[in-house]
Amino acid sequence: MNLEQQFQDKIDQEIKIEPRDWMPEEYRQMNIRQIAQHAHSEIVGMLPEGNWITRAPSLRRKVALLAKVQDEGGHGLYLYSAAETLGASRDDLIELLHQGKAKYSSIFNYPALTWADIGAIGWLVDGAAIMNQVSLTRTSYGPYARAMVRICKEESFHQRQGYEILLTLCRGSQDQIDMAQDSLNRWWWPALMMFGPSDGESTHTEKSMNWKLKRKKNDELRQHFIDVTVPQAEFLGLKVPDPLLKWNEEREHYDFGPIDWEEFRQVVAGNGPCNKKRLQDRIQAHEEGAWVRDAAMAHAEKRSKRKEDALTNRVA
Amino acid sequence: MKKEWPLWEVFIRSKNGLSHKHAGSLHAADAEMAIENARDVYTRRNEGVSLWVVESRHITASNPAESESLFDPAMDKVYRHPTFYELPDEVTHI
Amino acid sequence: MDRKDAIVKYALQMGDHALVTGQRLSEWCGHGPVLEQDIAITNIALDHVGQTRSWYQFAAELEGKGRTEDDLAYMRTEPEYRNVLLLEQPNTDWAHTIVRQFLYDVFNYYLHENLAHSPEEGIAAIARKSLKEITYHLRYSSEWMIRLGDGTELSRQKMQTALDNLWMFSGELTQMTPLEEFLATLGIAPDLAAIKPLYDEKVDEIIGEATLKKPGTTFMQSGGKLGRHTEYMGFILAEMQSLQRQLPGLKW
User: Which chain A residues have any C-beta within 8 angstroms of a chain B C-beta?
Assistant: First the structure.
């Protein structure tokens, strides 16, 4: 058996691939790309919600949101670490993001306009992300799978806190209910787009599935998401903004209306309401942090040199 | 000057009595910072009572290409396991 | 001034310090100089908001007028807030943030060390719990003072500028207000004159190790603890309280 066959054999037997194991170069690259894209999404994803931390309407909400956005930073970190085991440096990956050469989840190019959006992001965006992430806990690359296990464990409170925010609004005043409905209207379709284009149109799907980089198809995950989410919307008393949405007794799934993929493509291409702002924020934070990172390194080097000098002097 | 902070591996003892277990990695300029970052990144939910950090470049790993010669020979050494030895049922506490 | 009233006011002041610090630090979330520090500074912000809640809950209960922690945070105006001026100063950059936190953490550490032995058990309990967090805050900001003061030439300049800019707000920490004097005579809160030498010694030590120069100016600004704030305070509250002011009296 050649190396490639042995590799595929391992994957077929559900044996994880570990960092120093032989792997096809394309597998390595596909993993780096997917993990980095995932990491960037976590980091860019801190921004729309982060913009509400200072305005959270109660202290309890403030600590929950802070902890949640911080978790996303942590998740980005776990994922960059997983990519680093494949020989990619975090700096290089971030550089690609800042140059606009790496993708992140397009959902974060939509604005968080009201407090209800913080609820909707937790409920729908995190909810959609969790669908995908749970399936990725079984991905074939060991460090990626382990990062996903950790992330899924931590994510479970995110979706609940989002839903709880909306539940409070929906049991509140008319102003609050309107705020919640408006937010569902704006986030529903972008959330469905998070699963990506239909598998027929997605180029990487086949190889990703064979190598178990991806465990479930986009359409399958999307359907599952709709099926579990619609009853949750009903419980809130909110109306899902899709006139064609209907339970299909025969399929035992919801039928839903067509997704506007043209909008999706436009937002991915940079024409969403916040693409420029999100990247600017990331670039600014990185550039303004440069002197801090350099100084910390310079200080560490000075200190270890002083230690060495002290030892040399003692010997002399 | 463009220099990324070195990478560190983080090990956590989840409670006294258990050994430290690899939790993940992070970047830090020095060892003190690595401990603090590890605390902030990996023990936000009471995951640990003790931390080890070690710069990743100091770890020597076995080579997967040699894993057959390193690890397979242990597979047929059944005499290292207690079940290899047959004793009559009457003998207890052994 | 009666005893209970004084304790309520003091708990509010303590909560105000913590809330304004937490609010400022939380502005960093998502914008830190490196991912690990983004997470670290947010942890500290969380500690402060958590302490805020303890103080406000304690104050609200003791006051007994049915106000909640959120009424105290969201429905009080600028002059009712009694935090020191230092804490409302903007983040500006990592240097200003570190210097501001350091100048505060040193004071906060000695203050809590003392309050942990207050005969007023409500105060002592919060102080004991907070002290663990504050001990870490001080360790964190001290290390960053040294790292950046004794890092590169650029970082030393930035730290010196921040220290020069913020220094005049550090004096208020150890200046006594009538409220604090009253509580000190009852033995409930410390005489800040006793904390001042400890404060000065620790600040000098770290500034020295950071190879920074202690600013020569001795004139100190004050007023925050009496409700007279800098221009920044109005914006902090306008932002923080916006929803509660827009749609008051609702559950969130």
Answer: 18, 20-22, 67, 70-71, 74, 77-78, 81, 84, 89-91, 147, 150, 154, 293-294, 296-300, 303-304
Contacting subunits of B (3+ beta carbon pairs below 8 A): A, C
- Overall pTM surpassing 0.90 (yes/no): yes
Structural domains present in chain B: 7-84 (3.10.20.520)
- Residue A246 phi, psi (nearest 5): -160, 140
Rounded to an integer, the average pLDDT of C192-204 is: 97
pLDDT digits (tens, 9 = 90+) for A25-41: 999 999 999 999 999 99
Mean pLDDT, residues C138-153 taken together: 98
Task: Give the per-residue pLDDT at C208.
Answer: 98
Residue-number span of the structural domain to which C108 is assigned: 3-214+222-246
Q: Which residues of A touch B64 (CB under 8 A)?
A: 18, 20-22
Chain segment C214-244, per-residue pLDDT in tens: 999 889 999 999 999 999 999 999 999 999 9
For residue C175, give the DSSP letter. Answer: P
Q: What distance in Å separates the CA atoms of residue C225 and residue C84, rounded to the nearest whole number? A: 5
Let me know if residue C252 belongs to a domain. Answer: no
Q: Using CB atoms, which residue from A71, A84, A293 is nearest to B5? A: A293
Query: Which element (helix H / strand E) includes B27?
Result: strand B21-27
User: Is C94 an 8 Å CB contact of chain B?
Assistant: no
Whether residues B29 and C147 touch (CB distance < 8 A) is answered with: yes
C197: CATH: 1.20.1260.10
Mean pLDDT estimate for chain C? 97
Has residue C251 been placed in a domain? Answer: no
Cα separation, A237 vs A167, whole angstroms: 9
Q: Which of C241, C227, C196, C238 is nearest to C85 (CA)?
A: C227
Domain count within chain C = 1
